[in-house]
Amino acid sequence: MKASSYSLSTLKETPADAEVASHQLLIRGGFIRKLASGIYNWLPIGLRVLHKVEAIIREEMNDAGALEVMLPVVQPAELWEESGRWMKYDDGLLLKFKDRHQRDFCMGPTHEEVITDLARNELKSHKQLPVNFYQIQTKFRDETRPRFGLLRAREFLMKDAYSFHQDMQSLEQTYQLMHQTYCRILGKMQLDFRPVQADSGSIGGNVTMEFHVLADSGEDTIAFSDTSDYAANVEMAEALAPAADLSPHLELTTVSTPGIKTIETLSNFLKVTPQTTVKTLIVKGSESNLVALVIRGDHQLNTIKAIKFPEIAAPFTMATDEEIKQTLHCLPGSLGPVGLEIPVFVDRSAAAMANFVCGANTNDQHLLNVNWSRDVTATSIVDLRDVIEGDPSPDGQGALQFKKGIEVGHIFQLGDTYSKALNASVLDENGKAVIMSMGCYGMGVTRLVAAIIEQYHDDRGMKWPTQIAPFHVIIIPINAHKSPEVAATAEAIYQEMRQLGLEVLLDDREGVRPGSKFADAELIGIPHRLVVGDRGLANHVIEYVNRQTGATADLPITGIAQHLRQIVDSELAKTSSP
């Protein structure tokens, strides 16, 4: 491809609304252009990269035995009503509309309902199972606050797969196969990633795993062991129970704490550390009652964990000051577990404390030297808090560390969540109808493009891995309009590389200074650069620059195309499947 006919559209200025590197560089490099909030056009050079990401995913899914399909973007409301998600799917993310006949439809944010409807009509016998259908297709989620470019867009490309099984044992096998497939996909893209335990959210199911690309720009925090393979989203990482404090119990004392409403001001007022205090949070119960949640003063409540207890109402809702006052006869700043006549759920770390400080359930008063059993009894001792760095790893190996991650994949064991609701069954060996078990396996294709850049860039631009790069090689002739020899040599190398199957871009743009061509080459991140100039030709060499490493060399003109072919082949071989 020649740049003069390829419509390179690079920008020098960084867009004002682009906050992260991938968003900035994709816009500046002419890979995408914003159409509306969270909606982007893909330009030719960006589409080349996107297709390469698709190709890697498609190859690995096909090798895993998955069958490609294509499902509609527009979905009828009836299917979502059957599953029970029409009115509750992530409140607001579902873009709904009516057709000319006033029938309700939505733009598909995911395809569990559609694929289950297809399966119940096409799959009749257990002999057709297991089967795994996948597609690479556009999704739309009406995000309240689209941001970070492709990392949180409203319209995006996704690979979603759905497997159907006669029993849970078969589902488990496919789930593990998809786990391995995702690891191969991300490995071929040369990404530093972690599979992490996660919450299933609005999709459902009991067993789920997220795949995160590690990056400082990630929105999710990953907790991982410093000595083992354990990793989990911080909202799912278990906080183990510490050893109980066996200090002698001191005398219970009531102190006046006028105007004290926070742990920080309480600690300063009493000259104690937050670690010696507990905070009591009042939430709505599942039976319209109130429930107390008690955690150590320096810890944070994990609402994902809390909502899993049947005694706590969903969605998670804090009690209002008025509700607390009416039921407990004090304001939140003076709450404590002693004497409460409502259920008291105590976090493991709080339950291990002795001689702690808490509210006295009387305005402007707190208790010192409170002890479990002697002064207060917990209804239940549970894991309620976010883990913190340095906590012991839940697998018993090492301590937890934190890193930021970009979620690019999520796999689920759905069980019969959708197949039961839509009555998707097959006949078993005895001719009896059995509800199929399902798995769901999603991967963000456009998000992967951005995630790769987040790991592969510098202050000059992108640094694409070879197998993802829009081109393998860029040739930059210097002053070709003045030097017939430079122009002829660059053209000859370009044609020879094309014959060898290399993806090569010849920057033959007229009226563009060499410095601008170099800057564009670094911005768009093509891995290998050749500079053809009169000075090098006089010495029978061409300057070579490796975008990833920054290494430079003068390469002999003779055989240079074959030499680059070998370099590219070597790089591609490192990421090929075993």
Primary descriptors:
578 residues; alpha+beta; BirA Bifunctional Protein, domain 2; YbaK protein; Rossmann fold; 3 domains; 9-stranded mixed sheet; 5-stranded mixed sheet; 30 strands; 27% strand
Mean pLDDT: 94
Number of E strands: 30
Rg calc: 30 Å
The CATH superfamily of the largest domain bears the name: Bira Bifunctional Protein, Domain 2
- Main beta sheet: 9 strands, mixed
CATH topology of the largest domain: BirA Bifunctional Protein, domain 2
Query: What is the overall shape?
Result: globular
Q: What's the CATH architecture name of the largest domain? A: 2-Layer Sandwich
Q: Give the helix tally.
A: 14
CATH class identity of the largest domain: Alpha Beta
Poorly predicted sequence stretches spanning 5 or more consecutive residues: none
Helix content: 25-40%
Quickly count the domains.
3
Give the terminus-to-terminus CA distance.
Answer: 32 Å
Derived from helix and strand composition plus strand pairing, the structural class reads alpha+beta
Strand content: 25-35%
Give the structure's gist in a few sentences.
With 578 residues, this protein is of the alpha+beta class. It is built from 14 helices and 30 strands.
Describe the structure.
The chain has about 575 residues and is an alpha+beta fold. The chain folds into 3 domains: about 15-240 and about 400-455, BirA Bifunctional Protein, domain 2 (2-Layer Sandwich), CATH 3.30.930; about 255-380, YbaK protein (Alpha-Beta Complex); about 465-575, 3-Layer(aba) Sandwich (Rossmann fold), CATH 3.40.50. About 25% of the residues lie in helices and about 25% in strands. β5 and β6 form a beta hairpin. The mean pLDDT is about 95.
